[in-house]
Design brief:
With 203 residues, the protein is of the alpha+beta class. The chain contains 10 helices and 5 strands; from the N terminus they run H-H-H-H-H-H-H-E-E-E-H-H-E-E-H. Strands 2-1-3-5-4 form a 5-stranded antiparallel beta sheet.
């Protein structure tokens, strides 16, 4: 399944944000990558800023161009604010829900858990990271000793981040979370200007 496998720190430095989570290198070298170091960069054009925001959203949610464009088209065909709906759809992806619940420390790790059939939705194994979780669905770790004993899962669940979102509920005893509802834009913590993405695709 297609995914970005290049250097993650380089991407984080390009945007000046920890796109893939805490990064010690970013703390030391908080300027864009390149042979000229922290020299002054040219000011971005309007198109450049729109493109940059789209690229940032793609990297954050671990999506490639074709899939991200497909999500945008689906969002545009729904009633409401297209940009907000786009982010809500991204937040509803199974790999993102697994990450938000705290079952995995990063979206990349969550994607791997899903692909390797360690995650169930309403009791059924789902191995598609882009599966859209709907309100009321239960997402959890497969009820086998193999999964329940995985150190990576247990270490991540011990992280206080799990259960910290109002649209999710977490049952630690059963290692299962409930996707209570689709989050509002104000509840999505990602630093993304979705309106510029809409403007880019509307050109």
């Amino acid at each position: 399944m297609a995914r970005y496998i290049g250097p993650k720190t380089k991407i984080s430095r390009r945007f000046g944000e920890p796109i893939y989570g805490p990064d010690k290198v970013l703390d030391r070298r908080n300027f864009p990558p390149g042979q000229h170091g922290p020299k002054r960069r040219r000011k971005l054009t309007e198109y450049g800023m729109q493109l940059r925001e789209k690229q940032k959203a793609k990297y954050i949610y671990g999506m490639l161009e074709k899939q991200f464009h497909l999500f945008f088209e689906r969002a545009r065909n729904k009633h409401g604010n297209t940009g907000e709906i786009l982010l809500q759809m991204c937040e509803s992806r199974l790999d993102n829900v697994v990450f938000r619940l705290g079952i995995a420390p990063t979206r990349a790790a969550a994607r791997q858990l899903v692909s390797h059939r360690h995650i169930v939705v309403d009791g059924d194994v789902v191995h598609t990271p882009s599966f859209i979780v709907k309100a009321g669905m239960k997402v959890g770790v497969r009820a086998r000793e193999k999964e329940r004993a995985m150190t990576a899962i247990r270490d991540s669940i011990a992280n206080p981040r799990s259960g910290s979102y109002d649209w999710l509920e977490w049952d630690a005893e059963n290692m299962t979370g409930t996707f209570v509802r689709v989050p509002s834009r104000e509840e999505i913590p990602e630093n993304i200007d979705e309106q510029t993405i809409v403007e880019l695709f509307s050109r």
